[in-house]
TrEMBL record:
It comes from Pleuronectes platessa. The lineage of its organism: Eukaryota, Metazoa, Chordata, Craniata, Vertebrata. One of its GO terms (cellular component) is extracellular region. Pfam families: Sushi, Sushi_2. This is Beta-2-glycoprotein 1. Keywords: Disulfide bond, Glycoprotein, Heparin-binding, Repeat, Secreted, Signal, Sushi.
Length: 349
C-alpha cells in the first residue's frame, strides 16, 4: 500500500516531464516571413507552411518546417526579398528622383521652369510590384497672343496657330513708320504665363540740324526731321572734315554727333627740302606751301657729329604745324648755290 501511494504521487511528475520535452514552442521566423494560426505549443510532427508578408517574394526554401520528436523545428533557408517595380519612364521637360525601385520605394516628380505638372507628384512601389500612379506629364505654361502696341506689330519666331502660345515662344516688335519703338524689341512668353513688357510706338523728330564752321550741309531745310533721316556735311576749300560726314536723327530726338572742319597748315619755312607723300619736294614746289589737317610732313635735320642727314616728321593739327627744333633753315646762298650740302641731300644717317 505504501508503494502504490509513492507511485501515484510520482506519476504526475513523470508524465509532465515527458510531455514538456516532446513539444515545440512558437518558431523564430526569418525576417518578413509569416505563418497562419500561430499557437503557443506544437506537437511532434506538426507542420507549418511559411509564406512572405505582403510585398515580398520567397526565394530558396524549403517553405515548410516540422516539429521534430526532440522538440525542435527543422531548418529552412527561406528568404523574402522585396518585390521589384519596373524602372519608371523618363519625364519629358521634368526630372524624377528616386533611390530604388523596390516595394515601398518612392519616386518624386518635378517639372522644368515654364512647365506645369499634370498628374501625381509622387508614386510608391506597391505590394503588387506596380507603381501607385502613372508617370505624370509636364505641360508647358501657355500665354495669350502677345499684346500689340498701337501703331506696332510683332513677328513670331515660329508659326502660331490658335489664340494662345506656349512658354518660350519669342517674337520681335516693330513700329509702322514714322513711329519709333521705345522699349525692348524682343518679346517672350514667360514661365508666369504672361509676356515680357510691351514696348511703345512713338513719333520722334529732330530739330533742323546746325551748320558747322567752314563747312556746308546737304540739307538746310528749317523743318522737323523724322527719326533716321540723315544730313551730310562737307568743308570749304582745304579744310578737312573730322568725324562722320553724315549725321542721323536718333531715337532720343537729337542728332548724332556732327563733324567739324579742321584748318590746313602752312609749312613755315622759305628754303629747304621736305619729305611729303613719300616724295622729296623743294618747298617752292609744295602747292600753296600747305598741308592738310592730320597730314604728315618731314623736315631734314643734320647729325653734325656723324655728318649725315635725317628726316624728322611733324603733323598738321587744325592749322598748327610745329617745326622740329633740330631744323635749321639754310641761307639763301647755301640754298641756291650749295644745295648739295643741305641735310636733305647729303648721306642719310
Amino acid at each position: 500500500m505504501e508503494f502504490m501511494l509513492t507511485l501515484f504521487l510520482l506519476c504526475p511528475f513523470v508524465i509532465f516531464t515527458t510531455t514538456a520535452s516532446d513539444v515545440c514552442s512558437r518558431p523564430d521566423l526569418p525576417v518578413n516571413v509569416e505563418v497562419d494560426g500561430l499557437q503557443r505549443f506544437y506537437n511532434p510532427g506538426d507542420e507549418l507552411v511559411l509564406s512572405c508578408i505582403q510585398g515580398y517574394t520567397p526565394i530558396l526554401g524549403p517553405r515548410t518546417i516540422v516539429c521534430s520528436a526532440r522538440g525542435t523545428w527543422t531548418k529552412t533557408r527561406l528568404m523574402c526579398k522585396p518585390k521589384q517595380c519596373p524602372y519608371p519612364d523618363l519625364l519629358s521637360n521634368g526630372e524624377l528622383y528616386y533611390e530604388d525601385t523596390v516595394f515601398q520605394s518612392t519616386i518624386n516628380y518635378t517639372c522644368h521652369e515654364g512647365h506645369i505638372l499634370s498628374g501625381a507628384s509622387s508614386a510608391v512601389c506597391q505590394a503588387s510590384g506596380t507603381w501607385s500612379s502613372a508617370v505624370p506629364e509636364c505641360k508647358p505654361v501657355t500665354c495669350d497672343l502677345a499684346p500689340i502696341p498701337q501703331f506696332g506689330m510683332i513677328i513670331y519666331d515660329k508659326t502660331i496657330s490658335g489664340n494662345s502660345t506656349e512658354y518660350g515662344v519669342t517674337g520681335t516688335y516693330s513700329c509702322l513708320p514714322p513711329y519709333v519703338l521705345f522699349g525692348s524689341a524682343r518679346a517672350e512668353c514667360t514661365a508666369s504665363g504672361t509676356w515680357t513688357k510691351t514696348p511703345e510706338c512713338r513719333v520722334v523728330s529732330c530739330p533742323p540740324p546746325e551748320t558747322i564752321d567752314k563747312g556746308y550741309m546737304s540739307n538746310s531745310d528749317q523743318r522737323p526731321f523724322d527719326f533716321m533721316e540723315t544730313v551730310k556735311y562737307g568743308c570749304d576749300g582745304d579744310y578737312a572734315l573730322e568725324g562722320s560726314m553724315q549725321i542721323v536723327c536718333q531715337q532720343n530726338g537729337g542728332w548724332s554727333e556732327k563733324p567739324s572742319c579742321k584748318a590746313p597748315c602752312s609749312v613755315g619755312i622759305s628754303r629747304g627740302r621736305i619729305l611729303f607723300g613719300g616724295q622729296k619736294l623743294w618747298i617752292k614746289d609744295l602747292p600753296s606751301k600747305r598741308v592738310l589737317h592730320k597730314e604728315i610732313v618731314s623736315l631734314y635735320c643734320k647729325n653734325k657729329a656723324r655728318g649725315c642727314g635725317y628726316p624728322v616728321p611733324t603733323q598738321c593739327i587744325d592749322g598748327k604745324l610745329i617745326i622740329p627744333e633740330c631744323f635749321e633753315e639754310p641761307s639763301a646762298i647755301d640754298y641756291n648755290l650749295h644745295s648739295g650740302s643741305l641735310p636733305s641731300e647729303i648721306e642719310q644717317c
